[in-house]
Batch of 3 targets.
Target 1
Amino acid sequence: MDLKEHDLDQLCINTIRMLSADAVQKANSGHPGTPMGLAPLGYLLWTQFLKHNPNNPHWPDRDRFVLSAGHASMLLYSLLYLTGYDLSLEEIKRFRQWESKTPGHPEQGHVPSGVETTTGPLGQGFANGVGMAIAERFLAAHFNRPGHSIVDHHTYVIASDGDMMEGIASEAASLAGHLQLEKLICFYDANQITIEGSTDLAFREDVKKRFEAYGWNVIGPLPDGNNLAAMSKAIQAAQAETERPSLIIVRTHIGYGSPNRQDSAQAHGEPLGEEEVRLTKEHLGWPTEPDFYVPEPALAHYRKTAGRGERLEAEWQRRFDAYAAADPDLAKEWQRMVKGERPEGWDSEIKKYQPKGATATRRAFGEVLNLTAPRLSNLIGGSADLAPSNDTTQKGLGDFLAGHYEGRTLHFGVREHAMGGALNGMALHGGVIPYGGTFLIFSDYMKASIRLAALMELPVIYIFTHDSIGLGEDGPTHQPIEQLAGLRAIPNLTVIRPADATETATAWRLAVARRKGPVALILTRQKIPLIDRSRSAPADQLEKGAYVLSETEGRAAEMILIATGSEVHLAVEAAQALEKEGAAVRVVSMPSWELFERQPVSYRTAVLPPEVTARISIEAASTFGWERYVGGSGAMIGLNRFGASAPGEVVMRELGFTVENVLAHARPLLNAPSGAGAGRRKGS
Amino acid sequence: MDLKEHDLDQLCINTIRMLSADAVQKANSGHPGTPMGLAPLGYLLWTQFLKHNPNNPHWPDRDRFVLSAGHASMLLYSLLYLTGYDLSLEEIKRFRQWESKTPGHPEQGHVPSGVETTTGPLGQGFANGVGMAIAERFLAAHFNRPGHSIVDHHTYVIASDGDMMEGIASEAASLAGHLQLEKLICFYDANQITIEGSTDLAFREDVKKRFEAYGWNVIGPLPDGNNLAAMSKAIQAAQAETERPSLIIVRTHIGYGSPNRQDSAQAHGEPLGEEEVRLTKEHLGWPTEPDFYVPEPALAHYRKTAGRGERLEAEWQRRFDAYAAADPDLAKEWQRMVKGERPEGWDSEIKKYQPKGATATRRAFGEVLNLTAPRLSNLIGGSADLAPSNDTTQKGLGDFLAGHYEGRTLHFGVREHAMGGALNGMALHGGVIPYGGTFLIFSDYMKASIRLAALMELPVIYIFTHDSIGLGEDGPTHQPIEQLAGLRAIPNLTVIRPADATETATAWRLAVARRKGPVALILTRQKIPLIDRSRSAPADQLEKGAYVLSETEGRAAEMILIATGSEVHLAVEAAQALEKEGAAVRVVSMPSWELFERQPVSYRTAVLPPEVTARISIEAASTFGWERYVGGSGAMIGLNRFGASAPGEVVMRELGFTVENVLAHARPLLNAPSGAGAGRRKGS
């Protein structure tokens, strides 16, 4: 080979650069520049500092690595392959191709292992890192004992200029500084280039000063992202920090080594081009052929990482064995939590839960939360500054605050988006059961994080209260309308809107038990009646998503009233009135479309028999999507407008959520010839 | 009266405090504490500094006032009433009641005048203020001439601790600092209390330092929010600043004057209670009866504001008259823009637009944008750092940057949410036509702002490109699935997904012409064929939301294929294949559900005749909601899963967007007995 003499470091670094350039070129799609600029840092971190074992990517005490700049995926794939994870060079050659293990952006759970989180939407990875660092501190506080440190790892994040601009990262950084998460180390890859050009076009703030304002330990800017010694020293300083998260600012050069693309916006998101790849190889003293060339000495050097990882894990295992010998019960609990299992009998108190009467479902939630909290010692969550309203506090179990990491209730501040990202990070870290609350309307602020939880199928629980115009006086800015439809449209997310305290208890049990995919509980602010279960189906039927709550005795239903949440009691009352008028009416409580859709067809048609076309949906929200269950001959009572400020019961009444209005919709349908309903829609 | 002697200032200030406490108490709902803490600042600003005329709230050169802390609405309502806006004391007594002019949070357009923007969701008002300041600088640069300054006003924002925590405010602050919006003056009401308690629980950053890092002029913290002299001095210093936006930090006391609630979280969101209201009145030397007491001297003093405003506007009018005399054409243009009118013939070039062939609709958009830009001199917008991808640049018309405020293209940076909030502020300010672009997937990041644009019915235009899995390699993190459904569910938002370049041109024309309510254009990344208009309906039919694009000649349709955007050509091809098999097929292009819903029933049933129940919807997105048009006997070809990373055409093919798959769905429907279709749903 005509490879010039390089020192080994440089050889290893350029291997990443050229794998990245080649992969993007072959795919004719992708982001070559950032991996090329970050190659020295990636090499240094993964071979010298990151505590990981490529042979066991699931080692619980490994350091977490988050590539928040997910577009630089080839950096991560290069490192995974080179250090010996289960990712072949063949897969790198299939970058961005159908069913390859190397998708355009890193996908957790898609690559078999080694990708800690799915990134790409900027800022999310940063917030995930904060969540991981929270989980680490929590578990360390719960499980470490004097002389026994079994949870003790760092979370490393690589963030880009774009990450730094996103609000979610600002929120998460403020939270991390507040919580003094000293095991969090973030690299800010300051390459000064964004898609539109120089960062001077849109971003001239002093990031160092900003992070100091958040209470971070800021190191740098290091002027040269190729200076391994300086970066080593910075990482050591960050590791030695004991009170603050660290930000290491590194000035890198996007497309480093490309004679005509380095430091250009083109290097961000376009292949270099065949000719420029060749020129880059020449410039870096790299053989121009073959593509995807990996020098043996480089690979051999990288692969030593596995040996280092094995040793590190073995050391940890010895520590853990000593810990297990000293406290076998605690060790078992730890193992159970790491596996994501729930303890025996964790829900026994819920099963005994006897609500006393009319109550807001948020209050019922607060009660069942606190019935289960003592038995779920890794349940950790809170609210984005709405705890008294969301009822998300685990009473008597402490606040999670700097220096009080054993506390169970988090105070996220008015930072919904960071909460969403941090919850994802906590779930990804494992060992904890995370939940977070805000008003349903503010789920809008964290939508991008909810989507990523759904994409990764993370067991995150959302507590969204104040779920309709029924919240009243706060008015249309706070009254959700389209949020239910929006959440229901997200694949893999289970939305549950319970109809009373008993359904709420079942919903919470189901949410905690569920270990795959996020669950959103949609809860009322206002008191709603307790369904009389002596006269109707039991609340555990909620598990099926929809069920027949009541029907006219001894007669086949002529009409079905389908309702969710606070509107179910309205359906029950309307059905009673219609029965008095001689009609046979079925009431279906439908707390969760997603759970219902997972039932067999036989069950679904039993609940909603196709021959009964006189159907009315009742939900104080947009009717968007309800045609699915109502069909072309039914009616929908909902809200295709924004709400209004007034006491909740007034708004409900004025906007049509009354028995009278249900009757007004029902009577024409009952009188219409079968199957020839008006298909009317309430657009009140 | 047993009112103790007060100086007039104190009397005026306490009037706000007690009106607020009384109104919240009477409503038994609301936020008394913040208005009580902010009363001195509100009084000072509105009577001494704010350039406004209560008798003409629409005076174009007025200062803008934004209460970002919207929960403190009683501060604003008190000031509106006291200074003589069209808001009576009776309305204040009806605070938070049905159809009152004093809803829970300030609603722009609801109160007749004086409420510049709808606030409540935190951080939004702050970003609105940044947008208003952008519009002011833009119009000043365009219209002011040496010796003639007709656009010269400040934007004042009052922000809370919660605003400071929200990511959107961080983004907007960074942008404002970058743009050096020196006419923006923000007060940070540091009352150190949030809903969960002391800000120490979640928020201990150094806000002063953070804003300095953004490039702001930070004044304070002023230790005493009751010290009028100190606040006056601070405002004067901020007004004198010529290079940076200003943040004035004021330490206030929530619930000031309430002996038992001051400085408590309870004072934030609960009525004080009758007894505590009484104690507060006593403590402040206020008569305990009657409620809603307004001392004559205070009212008289406040009402002088109108006289001051009249003088200020008259001065401005003289300047404007001189300006109009010197340059009548420019004056006329300015008047036209302030009215929101479009110039004669602005769209003449679009009408002539002849696309050359297959093109991405984002590229077609870029072309029509640049055809219209020269004739729309107040069209201003840009992208959240995706301009080359969104094609949002107005070529040759300059960048809007610090010191270059005449530029037409904004660089929002990777700050989607701030972009959304700023666009709202620009539209609210008036005089400009604002638009903003990002990938459709990142509409999630700005959802809360889009909703507020819809709630306020603002003429904001969104350019959302990369609208489906057709974007290809970037993979599921970037491929929208549920975004279309989510946007369609928002009341008042018009979503348009054009099928080719010709529909795109019509869509842009419609978006610019529309002056009420936001419009979202949903555009492809990938090239799509040009519809052969010689063989089908003209593209201006897009205005009706859906139209018959083609059908089997001379025969009544047996089947309707309904498609949007990039899937329309698939429907056309499938229809041709089905015709060859002997079927009579209609193709409906349905770019906009909302526009279609606004058509008369006669038109809608003409396009989608009820008797044709064999219908298939084709859209590369969630099928959520499509039952509305497909009915119970049709089929939906869509995506109820996340996408995948691979070249766009591969992903499209693998996930079912092929002629073959449409045929596979169509044939059983054509063969089924009429009205007894399978009701199948494609969950590919």
Target 2
Amino acid sequence: MQLLDAGSTDEWAATFTEDGVFEVGDSAVHGSQDIARAARKVADEFAAAGVQRRHWIGMLTVTPGDDGELTARSYALVLEIPTGGEVVVRRSTVCTDRLVSSDGQWRVKHRRVTRDGLDPA
Amino acid sequence: MQLLDAGSTDEWAATFTEDGVFEVGDSAVHGSQDIARAARKVADEFAAAGVQRRHWIGMLTVTPGDDGELTARSYALVLEIPTGGEVVVRRSTVCTDRLVSSDGQWRVKHRRVTRDGLDPA
Amino acid sequence: MQLLDAGSTDEWAATFTEDGVFEVGDSAVHGSQDIARAARKVADEFAAAGVQRRHWIGMLTVTPGDDGELTARSYALVLEIPTGGEVVVRRSTVCTDRLVSSDGQWRVKHRRVTRDGLDPA
């Protein structure tokens, strides 16, 4: 998420598998290329508005599956800080990742984000 | 705290010893059964009000005692997110736990929570 | 940072090397003695105002250098809680530390803090 906050959207999208899925609420983006494109668009909008985003991950639990995959569940908090302005705690979410290992690196095969107050848990 | 946030109050209370004490400010609940009951009541109130709570634990330090116990000190932040509403950072606290091990599991024998701005440190 | 939040400014400043540098935005304090002095002044002001500060460190990455030093990068969030008042998320920052080891202890040789919305990243 530090990569995303720094505007390095391609590097961030590369933490997904090529066929990775990124689900937020009831919409989903399929494939790391489309995930990169969507992230770029949002990053450009925040940059144009002069707003720094900060994603905080915490309260992590990791559960190994039978198939060599991992399920990682965390809370994620999204902060927004406009140039010259106050910190806004924009969003509290729960993030559930299914992670697979290839070439010695863990990548996100499926990420599901539920936004507190918006999405059904 | 994820259990508590999910409304699984019995499972959460089971992280205390049977004779565990939960102290907040100058009030205390004694015994995991009463802790469970009190947590259930609060959880039901938040559920009825349509408010999701999120407890964040951070800045953890763990100190072993001479007696095989551990003292765990952490900051804990309580967020509240009403359905359709904004994130509220409701409370900043310091949590001091005395943990004992039995049957290969650490449980809370004594938890003391001081609420910043309310309770003397 | 727990030491700083507790008002133990000398103990906190001792986590810097004697010639350590603490840079925030475009101002810098040189030497752990001056860092201690500056911290004491700020801590006294907050105490006089009845405001509890809480520094949260998260999203830590640690990178070893060729020279035996470590670079630690983290997000740091500063909360302020006035007596009887609400939690204020005062500041979101990125903290970059260069750490050196001596006498079996890691100390900060150089800390650079950039404040989101105020300082150029």
Target 3
Amino acid sequence: MTTSAWLPEGASAVACLTFDVDAETGILSADAAAADHAMAISHQQFGPDVGVPRLLDILADLRVPATFFFPGWVAERRPALVERIAAAGHEIAHHSYSHVPATSMTSDEERRDFARAMDVFADIGVPIHGHRAGLWEASWSTPAIVAEHGLTYDSSLMSRDAPYRVRTPGGPIVELPPHWSLDDWEQYAFLPFPQIGQQITNPSEVLAMWKAEVDAMRRFGSLFMLTNHPFLTGRASRAVAFEQLVGHILDAGDVPVLTCHDLAERLAGVDLPEHDHVRPELEPDLFPTAG
Amino acid sequence: MTTSAWLPEGASAVACLTFDVDAETGILSADAAAADHAMAISHQQFGPDVGVPRLLDILADLRVPATFFFPGWVAERRPALVERIAAAGHEIAHHSYSHVPATSMTSDEERRDFARAMDVFADIGVPIHGHRAGLWEASWSTPAIVAEHGLTYDSSLMSRDAPYRVRTPGGPIVELPPHWSLDDWEQYAFLPFPQIGQQITNPSEVLAMWKAEVDAMRRFGSLFMLTNHPFLTGRASRAVAFEQLVGHILDAGDVPVLTCHDLAERLAGVDLPEHDHVRPELEPDLFPTAG
Amino acid sequence: MTTSAWLPEGASAVACLTFDVDAETGILSADAAAADHAMAISHQQFGPDVGVPRLLDILADLRVPATFFFPGWVAERRPALVERIAAAGHEIAHHSYSHVPATSMTSDEERRDFARAMDVFADIGVPIHGHRAGLWEASWSTPAIVAEHGLTYDSSLMSRDAPYRVRTPGGPIVELPPHWSLDDWEQYAFLPFPQIGQQITNPSEVLAMWKAEVDAMRRFGSLFMLTNHPFLTGRASRAVAFEQLVGHILDAGDVPVLTCHDLAERLAGVDLPEHDHVRPELEPDLFPTAG
Amino acid sequence: MTTSAWLPEGASAVACLTFDVDAETGILSADAAAADHAMAISHQQFGPDVGVPRLLDILADLRVPATFFFPGWVAERRPALVERIAAAGHEIAHHSYSHVPATSMTSDEERRDFARAMDVFADIGVPIHGHRAGLWEASWSTPAIVAEHGLTYDSSLMSRDAPYRVRTPGGPIVELPPHWSLDDWEQYAFLPFPQIGQQITNPSEVLAMWKAEVDAMRRFGSLFMLTNHPFLTGRASRAVAFEQLVGHILDAGDVPVLTCHDLAERLAGVDLPEHDHVRPELEPDLFPTAG
């Protein structure tokens, strides 16, 4: 029942543990007026200030690598944090400059935003191999821009639950697909203004759901692409649930934990499904415009 | 306590396993602007690309038939998928052309949309016996249109939780009622734009709820009309929960699993409650208009 | 810790099982345009057509009385159902005429709506002793109108979780307070248009929560005022959960199940807390107007 | 893994049990039109009328102190309740005058609102040591205003999950950070108008989640800052769950329960992280304005 050509020898599934370090941009990209809300800003700053160090400790204890996606805006203001994460053996990856969704930009604006973040990472001196769109809101140009910059993978699209290739004018890139059901935002984000979520799920329920997903994905040869946010999962009981989840993955014995970069590297030359990335053509007036 | 005249010999309830293969139309029918959102489109394409094959494997393992409701737009673009499903012994049924709700169309527009889908199915060469309105949003004309096309059943209305007849100018049709509580959309759909849902329920909780519904329906002689979507239930842990649900139904021993068409056929000549299908007359100004 | 003067001899709490038979008015009072939505109308008609008979069977099996609150509009169209319920020994009570909230009416409009429902009940020939506002949205005039019509109780306000008296110009009435946490609407109502809810909770979780509430209320000497709706709780697994909840109440041994009328009668002459019912005076411009 | 310099000798964490006695201001601050809604007003009055006495009984039984944050508007109308709480050994603290969020006021308006509440507390004769912003919506001026009035702590910001200092022009104050995940509002608040919440979580699930948070916080040396509301947690089964939660805290043996004032006093002279409290500077046009 599985199409497991992509799996490492002996593996039934692969896990990537990823953290989007959105900090202030997680709310500023929703509404600049968020800057007037001191509590909301403090809520976001918990991520880099307390969440990241706490999660780094847990990752070190468990001896697993992770991938940290940084908006350029956040990396620019906290270069020491970026360096500390990289020095601990984790991957730093590209999460746009401003966290504003690419779907609300022109193609030129998206290119400028993308390049600006690349400049920030170059200034800090960390190598960048992959990209994730802010809010996963990739445009129809995004994979091409990723390829233009010589990055090897993207992690924003959801056509499959295992790696696939996306064809672009600049050659194919690897897609490492995330999914809403493996994101802590949908479980834990609660903030009335800007309204970024209204959920506070019991971490033990989230843990049970994600353990079951690991088990199901081992059956189908899938990629367990976990997307977490330090301002959310860095909270005490959620950090403990994260630790227990990784323990479950390690206990399985056949689910290697890889950085996105490491996984993308291993997939070079491997036969993967190939997808076009083209906007569907719509017959005029067939579908309504919500306006 | 049951009105079980409609039940097959020895059955306490009947189960229909249905899949609405909405693919892209699941979001385009909410807002044409969804076409600009590459991730959202990929999220929907997972349904036919990965979800349907995975679910077909599970159905084959369990040896149960299912009914797949296709919007004509989706069938037109994926005739091979339609044929593959039909060749596996499952029913293909009518789910409008565009998935735009009939309640937002004039009667003429609804008739044209309905006929256009019939043409698609005729071109592919699959027989069509029944219909389900997009979003279940049947109009006061819908049953009449179903009857005009010679189809024998509809599956959009909720007056009962067992089959009943709806009178139309073109003669009665059988209604096989669905319900919100037996739809995976309300459990699993999460997409911010177009905003089609904000729920990510643990599949094991959904499984527990639906198993209890099967058990309760055996007491009342009801129709367990399950409505699932491959872009949702095709995800790994949800597919496993679906498999376990069907296992529970089969273990009961007195809940036959039938296609909608097969069930409607068996009900020909059987005494069923008959309902009119007429818009309620409202006294002017008694109820407010939300505008 | 309890103020239990109101409790019947030997009782630790009292339970009232109430059903609001809103039928079509449950959605028409939100938006008259609901009449165009055939599925939504069918969804509401399930209440009187299937839900009420099913629940009457369960109540008869358990030998407990209930109170059925009818909007006059619904009673007018289904007098036989009203008579059947009354003939089974249950109470029929007043739930406005149109189910449109009193807070969106002038005082005169509310009086006319109230009187119109009284006329319907008089025509059918059922005695009326109490009232519940549509959506519990009592106005500052509502208790006075209840007293003017000679009714003895209202069940819309939430100042306490045990019976109390509300002073009105026409003399005090008894308030039998409901609460959002003991209403099935918040647990089970899901309908996108009119959007009356987005919840589909597992009935077994609702059952667990309400059993715990019964137990806690026995400690505090409270009134367990259950508000259910046949279009919701009449569904198979929910009806079974309702039956189990009543079983739990009966098993307690010290929680008598009374109709609202019976309870209000017993409270005549009993010392209860008395509350004024007066709109708070607001300093101009202190609080914002959402507009 | 902990930074536990702030913890009392032998303690792994500290718990503050706080109640925001919002009463009518909980809805009036959302919309003055709430005053027209008699049921909504009664829903809020349950807090001081029934909830507070019930919770005081539970606190007395458990022999633990709590902090009650009062909007000045509420204290002004219920001085006897304020005195009764203080006489029972609990702390009274400042929760703005009107409960209108400071982020919707000018700095001058916020100062006037703050001072007006101080006057109310002075008139009643209760000492005030700390402040919590309405809805936690502190402005960039709030800590300075707190310091200007000689108060020693604030409890509105979320940069850490242990006490820290916030620098202000008038000297540093102690921040005792709350969090959305430890507030009963997100679990229990349900009211359609004004729409202040749509959640009715099973109290036993809330209890399980908060017990796990206590346990996790003992590992990280955190402050368990519980924010509850008498109009919510004063309901029967929720009050019982609160009692069980405190029992869990006491059973731990290393989590002292302190008032906010007592904790802030103990932190005088203790080395704590220091944070600036400055609005982030935003590049023009980088982030969108939702308007």
